[in-house]
Amino acid sequence: MRAVIAGSGSCIAPKLVTNDMLARIMDTSDEWIRERTGVEQRYFVEKGTSTTDLAEGAARRALEAAGLTGADLDAIVFATMTPDHFFPGCGGLLQHRLGMRPGPCFDIRQQCSGFIYGLELADLQIRAGKARTVLLVGAEVHSGFMPWREGSWARLDGHVDAPLAEGEWEVNTRTRHLSVLFGDAAAAVVLTAAEDGDRGVIDAMLFADGAEADKLCVPGVGFRHRPYVDDGQLARAEFVPVMDGRHVFRMATTRMAEAAQAILARNGLAVGDLRMVLMHQANRRINEYVQKALGLPEDKVVHNIHKYANTTAGTIPLLWDECVREGRVRPGDLVLMVAFGAGMTWGAALVRA
């Protein structure tokens, strides 16, 4: 018994935000962002739209592609680092909206590695015979991280042309190395049980090491503090992630390459056996480094960070959905997925479409 991806779907936030638009509210430029990250644009939700809202759109498209409805689901795995609420998690909210009968809904927090962790969890549920149909979602609304005041949002949208309030430009610029990286999106896959054949999730290797978690984290708004959020944390923008970019770059390139090599070796496979490699879309330069380390030709690697920026748990299922819809991944193709994220967490998975 193994889990086969029977359908996929995605939901992109509606508001297109180009690099030039960001330059209206901070000291940055299209050239600066492209050179460092490969990002050309991203999409943000309208104010009031939640992660579960985007997840519902992606889930309904995935269910339709699989020829199923929410009533057919046995379980949901929801990967996100931007939940609607501190609690409850998004999984149960999505279960109710989709009309799934009461059942297990897992909310997981492995950030950029979330989809691969979720894939392993969904596959294990099916292999153990506890579920035959599992919905796996990766969804994020990162725009809530942005420490921008209403005046900045209005200028970003082009609604006003007046200068920003005193100090606002400086505040926005202080976090530009992070705020330019992210976008809002959701993508989902439906996994169903298959008892014969070689399609489906073949293997996954997951890793976590918290020794250097402080190199990429959100320093405030947590229960290490009492109260867990206060005016001081908000004034210091401690709800915004902090990152040691050079250190994370080194770790990501090393760990992603190692994970990819390890899972191929464990399964007696080589790069030549792969149809496609889907890498987490955090930084184009990271992925190009990993591509070179693995000796991957251009036709086996796909990127979409230029269109959507980093959508964290949504990047890999979004790549999968695009590749399937564009015919770049067909039934029988062997696909390697690999990611690195905060925690630090990383991993790789092999899936035959």
Can you give me a brief rundown of this structure?
35% of the residues lie in helices and 22% in strands. The protein has 353 residues and is α/β, with parallel strands linked by helices.
Explain what you see:
- There is one protein chain.
- This protein is α/β, with parallel strands linked by helices.
- 35% of the residues lie in helices and 22% in strands.
- The protein has helices spanning 19-22, 30-37, 51-66, 90-98, 114-127, 150-156, 168-174, 176-179, 231-235, 245-266, 284-294, 305-308, 315-325; strands at residues 2-12, 15-18, 41-44, 75-79, 105-108, 133-140, 185-194, 200-208, 216-217, 242-243, 276-279, 334-341, 345-352.
- It has a five-stranded mixed beta sheet with strand order 1-7-6-4-5, with helices on both faces. The chain has a four-stranded mixed beta sheet with strand order 8-13-12-11, sandwiched between helices. The protein has a two-stranded antiparallel ribbon with strand order 2-3.
- The longest helix has 22 residues, at 245-266.
- The mean pLDDT is 96.
Keywords:
353 residues; 13 strands; 13 helices; alpha/beta
Average pLDDT over all residues: 96
The ordered string of helix (H) and strand (E) elements is EEHHEHEHEHEHHHEEEHEHEHHHEE
* Strand elements, count: 13
Give the count of helical stretches: 13
